[in-house]
Specification:
disordered C terminus, 18 helices, 5 domains, Hect, E3 ligase catalytic domain fold, three-stranded mixed β-sheet, alpha/beta
């Protein structure tokens, strides 16, 4: 019974092949070094001269490994002089049955002879049986390890822990009683929070605007060498529920559930983002709108009602900026409007939107009243949400009973989809109950930016970048504004808050005269000229004594 070693008695040189399953093992352990030491001892015992050491740090289920391919190339170059190929154990060659056989053939074809201190390779039936059995055991161990790893990861994610690579904006940190858990990784966590909330609120109209916002953040990791981020990556970020403080693993049949980590945004904000992503697609943000011409695409030609374009015109000594109509057949086609003229008129119109100090104080009072009303309604809303949660629990239990009784795979799949949807609704309701009546911010913090905008949109326009200016346009105007070359800027269609303030300021609210048979005491009579009705200011004009119902019982 001849072995490979007896067939190649003239072998003088050997190469060593070592392998660990991951790059992490090369840092945290000494697996490669231990294998090499044992192989060198075996080579010394057999009288081989080790001429090269090859190693890999990848899984053993594949044959496409850099170290293995490098060793095969070396053996082919030295084909005239056969080399022994020393491995520490059969599992180091491969951990898959097919991969093992394939590599055995490749090593033999390249002129190598496989040897090991753990097993005697041979061409006889008994040696091959042992080799095949050990290769099968090695494959079984790999598969079993994989199954155990998946089972442990699945159980952990069922308990609310994220088990995959930490997403951008998070990092892993060890905590007592939890093990490794996600924590916010600043400043990227705050950057993503602003991006998510901006998209949910409409500040960023499209995913492209979110992409450009992220690209302008120096610390945020980019995809491409030119500093850009792929559109697909932006979509992936917007659709990851982990950022809402929840975890799920659909491939492992683990539905959405509350996570142990802190969410960057609320689940309600996340659901708003998903609704926006599924809504009717909007036109992509134009690339030709830049800081030089912030009104490009917003100002319309008064003759054809088409958006004006803009350009720099080359003069004798320098370039000059102009807006112009590019619609063929229009009376104003290619007739330029100086940028400073058009933008000066527009800024004058913005300045006229600033309310007086007394009117601004009235707006602050209206915000305060609305805030108090919402707080008063929170208790009733909590009761409704709790009743909704009980109803959802009942529906989920009913569907689970149907799954147990059902024998149809199609019906079971449909029930599971429905349960997943109900669990998502329940999670959203639970989150709302936890936050009902407990605003994250104070009144001043909540309305700070709104009041700042209402007090002076022109100031924000002057001090903002291009995105800030485009946001002012969306918030202050309902529609684009027309511009006539001869008559200037047309009357803009203002957003609702400015319409209301304009109506109040223009004197449309009148004081009602007192009525009744008995004379009223001037000292205790207060005229209520503004009433809050469905969130808008309208004339009230009702004489009130002591308390005003429009102010929710506040004393006047």
């Amino acid at each position: 019974m001849k072995t490979q070693e007896k067939q190649y008695d003239n072998i003088k040189h050997a190469v060593i092949y070592c392998r660990v399953s991951s790059a992490k093992q090369t840092v945290r352990g000494d697996g490669l070094g231990s294998q090499e030491t044992r192989c060198r001892e075996f080579a010394k015992y057999k009288g081989y001269e080790v001429v090269h050491v090859f190693s890999d740090d990848v899984s053993g289920g594949s044959t496409s490994r850099p170290g293995m391919q490098g060793m095969l190339s070396f053996l082919r170059e030295q084909r005239k002089e056969p080399h022994a190929v020393i491995i520490d154990d059969i599992s180091r060659l491969a951990r898959g049955l097919m991969a093992h056989f394939e590599l055995r053939v490749q090593i033999g074809d390249a002129g190598g002879v496989l040897v090991s201190p753990s097993i005697e390779f041979g061409e006889d039936s008994d040696s091959q049986l042992v080799e095949n059995l050990l290769a099968s055991v090695s494959q079984h161990q790999r598969q079993k390890n994989g199954e155990q790893t998946v089972n442990r990861m699945r159980a952990r994610i069922q308990n609310g822990y994220w088990v995959f690579q930490a997403p951008v904006g998070y990092r892993y940190e060890r905590e007592s009683g939890h093990g490794k858990i996600l924590v916010r990784d600043e400043p990227n966590a705050s950057i993503l929070q602003e991006a998510f909330e901006g998209y949910a609120s409409g500040r960023f109209e499209t995913q492209v605007e979110v992409k450009r916002f992220l690209e302008r953040q120096p610390s945020f990791p980019k995809d491409l060498p030119n500093g850009e981020i792929r559109n697909q990556r932006v979509h992936d970020l917007l659709t990851r529920s982990v950022y809402s403080g929840y975890v799920e693993a659909p491939n492992w049949s683990v539905g959405l559930r509350e996570g142990k980590h802190e969410g960057i945004i609320s689940l309600e904000t996340f659901e708003t983002i998903q609704a926006r992503l599924k809504s009717t697609a909007k036109a992509p943000a134009r690339k030709d709108i830049n800081a030089d011409f912030p009104l490009r695409g917003f100002i319309l030609c008064d003759d054809c009602n088409k958006p004006l374009t803009a350009c720099w015109s080359q003069g004798k000594k320098e370039k000059y900026p102009y807006y112009l109509c590019a619609t063929k057949g229009c009376e104003s086609y290619r007739k330029s409007i100086k940028r400073e003229v058009l933008e000066s008129e527009f800024e004058s119109a913005l300045q006229q939107l600033e309310p007086t100090q007394s009117m601004f104080e009235l707006v602050k009072t209206m915000f305060s009243d609305a805030w108090d009303m919402r707080l008063a309604q929170a208790s009733q809303a909590t009761k409704i949400l709790k009743a909704s949660i009980k109803k959802l629990d009942s529906q989920i239990d009913t569907l689970l009973d149907r799954i147990v009784d059902s024998t149809s795979a199609t019906a079971i799949t449909a029930y599971e989809r429905k349960i997943s949807k109900l669990e998502r609704e329940k999670a959203l309701a639970v989150e709302k109950v936890a936050t009902a009546g407990k605003p994250r911010l104070t009144l001043e913090e909540s309305f700070e930016h709104a009041l700042q905008f209402l007090s002076s949109p022109w100031s924000i326009w002057k001090n903002s970048d291009l995105i800030g200016k485009r946001t002012v346009l969306r918030l202050a105007f309902l529609q684009p504004v027309a511009y006539s070359r001869n008559e200037g800027l047309r009357t803009p269609n203002l957003a609702f808050p400015f319409k209301v303030l304009g109506d109040i300021y223009s004197g449309k609210s009148e004081m009602a005269r007192p009525k009744g048979f008995e004379p009223l005491t001037p000292r205790f009579v207060v005229w209520c000229s503004i009433q809050l009705s469905y969130g808008r200011a309208v004339p009230c004009g009702t004489p009130r004594i002591g308390l005003c119902p429009a102010r929710q019982g506040q004393r006047l």
